[in-house]
Amino acid sequence: MPVRVTSSSDSSSGSSSGAAPGASPGGKLDLSADIRGFFRAEVESALSEGGFQVTDQAVDYVSALLTDYLRPDPRTEATLRESLTLLFGAALESTGPERFDRFRCLGDGVLYVSGFFGDNLKRRGVKLDYVGALGARAYDGAAELLNRRAGASGVFRELASKFTTFVELVSNVANSLHARGAQSDESLLRLYERWMRGGSQRLADELLQRGVMPVRGSFGDN
């Protein structure tokens, strides 16, 4: 059965929820801000908190990926709204540079969606193991096409072999952005609900700082 993965109520497709990098108090994005540098700092902070072991090349790649998803191109955006199974099949049937680009975009899309919206996917009955396997296979496919270039396939091999780790890393970044963006009672409630679905310690700490005791069952178990 084709798997279609779309973002849910936490955010509209193609943009992360919470405070955007360089956002003004009114919520408008300041395009003069160093957005990639912002995401690099967020990724490094998540690495430190989670104790992940990844290469600097992978950190650069994930930082660029998150930056790109602020304004995704059509092929990148396709992973947010189309069947992942069919997209993987289309990648297998393509050739040359297009094959590489399809595999890379699919891997990026699965990583982004799984990291930012994994709890929603799980709640909707999507099998995250299957989705993650597709993402890993997509990155592995991209790496295969670069094998003849010395060192060029390394980051894609790493993304494929540690896909679950990178999903957790991106999820930690998402939690940080959600926590930073919770400025109203309504957004604080959404933050609490996100903590209930995922159990993030980062979100629990943020709730405690806001004077909210994270106790499962307060709003009903999911």
Number of distinct helices: 10
User: How far is it from the N-terminal to the C-terminal residue, by CA?
Assistant: 26 Å
Helix content: 55-70%
Helix and strand string, N-terminal first? HHHHHHHHHH
SSE-based structural type: mainly alpha
Report the sheet-strand fraction.
Answer: under 5%
Biggest beta sheet attributes: none
Low-confidence stretches: 6-32, 218-222
Q: Strand tally, please?
A: 0
What is the C-alpha radius of gyration, as a whole number of Å? 17 Å
User: What is the residue-mean pLDDT, rounded to a whole number?
Assistant: 75
Please tell me what the overall shape is: globular
Distinctive features:
222 residues, 0% strand, mainly alpha
Short description:
The chain has ten helices and no strands.
What does this structure look like?
The protein is mostly helical. The chain has a domain at 35-162. The chain has ten helices and no strands. The chain has helices at residues 35-50, 56-68, 74-78, 84-93, 96-123, 128-145, 154-161, 163-181, 185-198, 201-209. It is globular and about 50 Å long. The protein starts with 34 loop residues before the first helix and ends in a 13-residue tail after the last helix.
